[in-house]
Write a sequence for this structure.
């Protein structure tokens, strides 16, 4: 006789469009496999504090298109407190959890991997609009964020042209510049600045001046929030850190804009896209990807392939080890960045 499993799901870290579609995918597949699903509330907080909700197909209706996460999310990390791990173990035992599907970014997945090392039966699903998780070509939420940023850049072009202004658009991207590169390219930005390539403010200003000399009086400069000036270029203030030890960013766009004004005299404005990139409905692409991730995660749990992460590679969903996926971030393809940088300036 096949004994049904009790699967649990959690969503950790920053939200991303498609999280609910993953949850729905997990629940539908698990139900077909004869398994039961619960969802821990607010990421690892729900595991530590034994807070969860039952999930079934009926309760997941409408989730395919819904932004955010019905489970809630935090960056709480069980390794931050002495008894965090014991509390998680107690919750697993009390509720008879046979597998945990942990949907998260680099911070949540690293923590999931540590729990796996302690013997917890975990499966990882990569989540981040930043698209920076290793061994998966794409994470859900990224395409939606790129669409939102691209649309915004398109709108900023017309106002920049009307006023002969430079507009600096700050997009998300803490360690990597995938959103900046894709949206900059898709939106026809003059310059794109990303964390992988520290920029020289003198070169930025020279490129804008050359453009103005050619009679193009407006420019769009896309800046990833983690972009950094080359040492000696100009000073940026010290940053603070979150619970996973990640740097808290925001503000580089304004700093770049004031440098441009100071050095060129061009009228410059800043737009920080911020959380609109993470909110709202997932695009069609992300609904498909997220559902597929969810279904494959439920299958991996049913097969007890613990310690694995679902990864999208060459048009297929495959499984990799979480430890390998979090070993190194996935950076922007240098050739693509070259294309994005040399086309317009
Ligand atoms: O993880 C994705 C991300 O969007 C980063 O680009 C950004 O730095 C971070 O989340 C900010 O999230 P929060 O303010 O929710 O911590």
């Amino acid at each position: 006789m096949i004994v049904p499993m009790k699967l649990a799901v959690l969503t950790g870290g920053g939200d991303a469009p498609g999280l609910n579609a993953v949850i729905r995918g997990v629940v539908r597949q698990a139900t077909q496999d004869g398994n039961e699903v619960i969802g821990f509330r607010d990421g690892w907080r729900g595991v530590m504090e034994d807070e969860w909700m039952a999930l079934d197909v009926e309760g997941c209706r409408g989730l395919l298109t819904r932004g955010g996460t019905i489970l809630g999310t935090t960056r709480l990390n069980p390794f931050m407190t002495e008894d965090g791990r014991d509390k998680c173990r107690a919750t697993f035992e009390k509720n008879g959890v046979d597998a945990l599907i942990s949907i998260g970014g680099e911070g949540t997945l690293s923590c999931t991997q540590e729990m796996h090392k302690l013997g917890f039966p975990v499966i990882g699903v990569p989540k981040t609009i930043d698209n920076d998780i290793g061994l998966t070509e794409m994470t859900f939420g990224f395409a939606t964020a790129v669409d939102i940023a691209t649309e915004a850049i398109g709108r900023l072009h017309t106002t920049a042209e009307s006023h002969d202004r430079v507009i600096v658009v700050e997009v998300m991207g803490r360690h990597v510049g995938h959103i900046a590169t894709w949206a900059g390219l898709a939106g026809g930005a003059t310059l794109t600045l990303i964390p992988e390539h520290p920029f020289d403010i003198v070169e930025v200003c020279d490129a804008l001046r050359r453009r103005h000399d050619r009679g193009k009086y407006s420019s769009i400069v896309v800046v990833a929030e983690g972009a950094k000036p080359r040492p000696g270029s100009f000073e940026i203030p010290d940053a603070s850190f979150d619970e996973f030890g990640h740097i808290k960013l925001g503000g580089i766009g304004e700093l770049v804009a004031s440098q441009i004004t100071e050095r060129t005299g061009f009228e410059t404005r800043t737009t920080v896209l911020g959380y609109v990139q993470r909110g709202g409905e997932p695009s069609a692409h992300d609904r498909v990807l997220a559902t597929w991730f969810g279904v494959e995660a439920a299958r991996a749990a049913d097969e007890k392939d613990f310690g694995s992460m679902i990864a999208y590679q060459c048009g297929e969903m495959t499984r990799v080890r979480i430890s390998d996926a979090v070993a190194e971030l996935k950076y922007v393809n240098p050739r693509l960045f070259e294309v994005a940088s040399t086309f317009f300036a």
